[in-house]
Design a protein that fits this description.
- The protein is an all-alpha fold.
- It has one domain.
- 63% of the residues lie in helices and 1% in strands.
- The chain has 19 helices and two strands.
- The chain has helices spanning 3-7, 20-38, 46-57, 82-85, 90-115, 128-149, 153-167, 174-189, 195-201, 205-225, 234-243, 268-276, 297-329, 334-355, 368-380, 385-398, 403-406, 408-416, 419-434, and strands spanning 8-9, 12-13.
- The protein has a two-stranded antiparallel sheet with strand order 1-2.
- Strand 1 (8-9) and strand 2 form a beta hairpin.
- The chain starts with a helix and ends in an 8-residue tail after the last helix.
- The model is unreliable at 1-14 and 119-123 (pLDDT under 50).
């Protein structure tokens, strides 16, 4: 297709939208100033990352659980981007961190905007205005929290989104690129290793090899660049300090890092632990009023494992469903390939949140992808009562738990009950249902 054809749409010549440039500049300046000021008013995550990078470059221990008020708990590669970042003047760090996160978010939004409507037989006219309004209700507060808390979640979200986008391409390089992008995300946060399940059940073995190789290579890179004085591997120390004490069916619990009953943890294991066991401690983020039952430890663990297995099964089912849909559409169905990848990727992102031992509110920014995927189907294809119910429930549990709407006391109670967790479970089920071909059977 020539350039002239690309610039014409519905018989009209499309002019470059140059007015977007000053708008983006204004957002960068205003956002950098606003979040730079807010960074001085309370605890934020950025100083933790910067200090981790500075300590790694100096050969000092970065995993100081029990001594730092907010310890660095991420895999070692997560500290690498902050080695050079820590050289910036302190006054520039927060504004530039906003700008970097915004520039990572922008292509994700463009990709999702262009993905809307792909692969639906008999799809109606574009309804992107309604789409983004509903997406804002489902995921907007979680995206905003990334900037408010100055978290590193966009560093995970961006390569994860790239992995999904590449998986929706038919080119020979796409599989390896998808796996490599997922490997980058895995090296930063570990939970994106769940992409490997999609690659296994989707028979994307090139992507599987790439995710494992990339994650392993990047995890070992800090040992080559900034070796520890004791000769141990950074990755092994991270595992010993932060993961070794975690049992199957357990939740994040470590003195000086994670409280197992904290309402800030909206993972599946965290919410079930709060609902089904009495807290052993008290604190600002512990709400004993939400306890429904006090199960024995072994029974609680079995309940959590069953819930986690259901999430794993949903991801596998979705990967198989996506692969079947692509095969049924034929090799030339590029739109169907991208739609199937978006759906399967949505399940993986929901699984990352639910299966992690610790999922804070900013981690849920990745719900942008399943929100767009599910809402796009609702707005463009025949009505589906079950899908509508799941999406509405997800919106009520997610946006409806905002403390700005219901107050601090009620907000703490619904968070303690796992409102964001159950919202994500609804989005997981909705994504699986939306993966059905229009008019298809469950």
């Amino acid at each position: 297709m020539d350039i002239g054809a690309r610039l014409r749409h519905n018989g009209r010549v499309q002019r470059p939208r140059l007015w977007l440039l000053p708008l983006l500049l204004a957002v960068l300046v205003a956002g950098g100033w606003y979040f730079g000021v807010r960074s001085k008013a309370g605890d934020r995550e950025l100083p933790v990352y910067v200090e981790g990078g500075q300590r790694m470059a100096a050969g000092e221990e970065i995993y100081r659980r029990g001594t730092d008020s907010k310890p660095f708990t991420y895999p070692p590669f997560a500290a690498v981007p902050f080695v050079p970042y820590g050289m910036l003047p302190a006054g520039w760090q927060a504004p530039l961190w906003f700008a970097l996160n915004f520039m990572l978010l922008l292509p994700i939004l463009v990709w999702l905007h262009r993905s809307a409507g792909l692969g639906w037989t008999g799809a109606g006219p574009p309804r992107r205005g309604w789409l983004w309004l509903c997406v804002a209700l489902l995921a907007g507060r979680h995206v905003f929290s990334v900037f408010e808390n100055q978290s590193n979640d966009m560093l995970v979200f961006a390569p994860a989104a790239l992995a999904i986008a590449c998986a929706g391409r038919a080119e020979r390089w796409a599989g390896a690129a998808s796996g490599a992008a997922a490997g980058v995300a895995t090296a930063i946060k570990a939970t994106p290793l769940l992409f490997a399940e999609w690659f296994v059940f989707g028979r994307r073995f090139g992507a599987l090899a790439a995710v494992v190789a990339t994650a392993a290579l990047l995890s070992l890179a800090p040992d080559w660049c900034w070796p520890r004085s004791d000769g141990r591997s950074w990755a092994m120390v991270w595992f010993d300090v932060n993961l070794r004490g975690l049992a199957v069916g357990g939740t994040a619990a470590a003195a000086g890092a994670w409280d197992p009953h904290s309402i800030l943890n909206q993972s599946l294991s965290g919410s079930l632990t709060r609902l089904l066991s009495q807290p052993a401690t008290t604190g600002k983020f512990v709400v004993p009023e939400v306890v429904l039952l006090d199960l024995p430890a072994g029974v609680l663990r079995a309940v959590i494992v069953l819930g986690q297995l259901a999430v794993v099964a949903a991801i596998a089912w979705g990967a198989l469903r996506a692969r079947t849909a692509v095969r049924a559409a034929g090799g030339g169905a590029a739109a169907e390939l991208r739609r199937a990848a978006l759906g399967a990727g949505s399940l993986v992102l929901c699984g990352m949140l639910l299966l992690s031992p610790q999922s804070s509110k900013s981690h849920f920014c990745v719900l942008l992808v399943p929100a767009v995927f599910c809402l796009d189907r609702l707005l463009r294809t025949r009505r589906d009562g079950a899908l509508i119910g799941l999406v509405v429930a997800a919106a009520l549990l997610g946006a409806g738990s905002a403390k700005g709407l219901i107050g601090t006391r009620a907000g703490n109670l619904v968070l303690g009950a796992g409102a964001v967790t159950w919202s994500t479970m609804c989005m997981l089920a909705a994504s699986l249902r939306a993966l059905r071909p229009p008019g298809g059977t469950p």
